[in-house]
Amino acid sequence: MQSTHVDTRSSTRLTTSLCILLWALASLATALAQTPPRIGGRMTEPLEKYEMPPAPRGLYRLESSPRMISQYGLFTSYQVNVDANGNNIVGDAANEPSICMDVRNRARMAIGWRQFNTYTSNFRQAGWAYTTDSGIHWAFPGVLQNNIFRSDPVTNSDEVGNFFYLSLQSSQSLSFFCDDIWRSANGGQTWTEQSPDRGAHGGDKEWFTIDRTPTSIGHGFQYQFWTGLFTCDGGEFSRSTDGGVSWQTPVHIPNSPQWGTLDVASSGYLYIGGGNTGNGFWCIRSTNARNSNVTPTFDQITIVNMGGSIVYGGTVNPDGLCGQMFLAVDRSGGPTNNNIYMVASVRPFGGNGTDVMFARSTNGGQSFSAPQRINDDPVNSSKWHWFGTLSVAPNGRIDVVWYDTRNAANNTDSQLFYSYSADGGVTWSPNVAVSAPFSPLEGWPNQNKIGDYITIVSDYTGGNVAYAATFNFDRNRDQHEQDVYYVRLSPSGGATPTPTATASPTETATPTATPSPTPTATGTPRVTPTPRSEPTPRIRPTPPPRPV
Predict the structure, then answer these.
(1) How far separated are the first and last CA of the chain, in Å rounded?
(2) Do β-strands 258-264 and 270-275 pair in parallel, antiparallel, or remain unpaired?
(3) CB neighbours of 149 closer than 8 A, spacing ≥ 6?
(4) What's this model's pTM, rounded to 2 decimal places?
(5) 457-513: per-residue pLDDT in tens?
(6) Nearest C-alpha neighbor of 39 from the set 547, 542, 548
(7) 475 CB neighbour count, 10 Å cutoff
(8) Which tens digits make up the pLDDT trace of 223-240?
(9) What is the rounded distance in angstroms from the CA atom of residue 359 to the CA atom of residue 341?
């Protein structure tokens, strides 16, 4: 497999370089003075810190190089964070991307990410880009608010093509950790703040979902949950019944789950997947969050065995997560309708690396299957299969992607891998590498991580992935730089034609046999065991760290 790489051009003037150096040294001293203490490798203070000031004017977008288009076999990754001329911006950094798509027209997508205007500062903002040609070309107009500290980007869309961007902001005094929601009615070209500034409550590692089922009494409702240790004004959950304009007073979720996601079934029932930052995981249900006349309560809490523990501070991402919990509900209308799926990259008991593990429920979250290992390489407890995430297509196909070090002699260089299931998670396709290798240990923006997650959104014929990688080489820094990329996947391999838009986003198709992936993959499908209740996992008492 070959990958096309483009080196950047060295043209930064000496005077500018000296200014950058002096400013970076001053900022670095500030950051080091505020580094949280560690106990047993764990942070005891929040990492979501506004430590360094915005870069001075004149230090951003000084130099450009041709944007990266990385070809790997049948798969093409297109750089997303580009300047007005479509070129790479030398010296910045971008990671933690979240992708959304117009369900009526797959050619229209948007990606939000953590934007660092210079790698010399960990000050980050809410970057975004949009495409109108299925991800081949991207426009990056800027950030939601200039010089406003923002992090943890999450994007989503409703069934009529509105895009939404949930963003966390904080202050240098750490006086708040609050969210607000932004809306785009033109495919991500421009954004308008829906809620008042910090009006969506929230907190660290927030996530949200939208009820897109027209027959649900909660149709159009937005639901958000976050980590309860560092919040805007308490609680872990809030709801908006008016498209994100206003949000109810936060309430607590049983067990205070962290580092997870949530989704809505075709019934309007809400499911939250999260954990205790160790080996405890839950699927938590609310049947009345869809009822605007009541305060949401949670009536079902199910322990889910994921076969290991969430990892913070692994070798491949020293100051970040190696993955969080992702939950998705099948709304295909077919035989697998309302199945609940959970995926997480976890460290198996006794291991040193991580595996991508999957569990499913076929009875509304009452019980889950035993954990199933998705990465199909020979068991090696030291290999990293990290940032695992999933999406369910309208026809019920499950797409899973992750970073993988199986082919790396140094056990850190990673590739994006893909697997899918066409039968509700009973069997899985052989794994396929879909990107060139890259080092996650380069391009750090004064912060030793490449974010905490990547994302995928699926349609009838394939999946659309936003991920961070270090393909561009910055000669000024003498290392590769972090950028955001888009790649199109499909069970048949590589890009697929844009599907015809459906008249109604709720229209479904009965799952059909899906072609095998590229011939280069090997292996046989693996069967997921019959669902069963799991014993209570061991709980680690160590205080959880605070990822950014």
Answers:
(1) 34
(2) antiparallel
(3) 50, 123, 124, 125, 169, 170, 171, 172
(4) 0.85
(5) 999 999 999 999 999 999 999 999 999 999 999 998 876 544 333 332 333 333 333
(6) 542
(7) 14
(8) 999 998 889 999 999 999
(9) 6
